[in-house]
Design brief:
The chain is an all-alpha fold and 100 residues long. It has helices at residues 4-13, 29-34, 43-52, 71-78, 84-99. It is 50% helix and 0% strand. It comes from Phenylobacterium conjunctum.
């Protein structure tokens, strides 16, 4: 096992990395002056940014609730991966729709 001093000595002996990237040059003051801000971007782009902010709007409003369910039910839906609460909501909505 290497000591901290040995590791630091090996790191110090490494050559300095070349951080110049011709495909991604460092920005100049002129580039910053020409850059758009949220307020100066074209209106259609501002609308896109506004639409992307926050949670996506649900077709139907959701209500936060605390509910106790059997462990096997929760495990079943969680086994399907991300979105398990949405799938559980869909299953319950189907039952409500059938009940009419």
């Amino acid at each position: 096992m290497s000591s901290k001093r040995e590791i630091e000595a090996r790191l110090a002996a490494l050559p300095e990395p070349d951080l110049d990237d011709p495909d991604n040059p460092e920005w100049t003051e002129e580039m910053f002056a020409k850059a758009w801000t949220a307020e100066t971007a074209p209106p259609e782009l501002q609308e896109v940014f506004k639409a992307l902010r926050g949670r996506p709007k649900a077709e139907r409003p959701k209500v936060a609730v605390k509910i106790r369910l059997d462990q096997d039910i929760v495990e079943h839906f969680k086994a399907g991966g991300r979105g398990w609460q949405t799938r559980l909501n869909a299953a319950l909505a189907e039952i409500v729709a059938k009940a009419g």
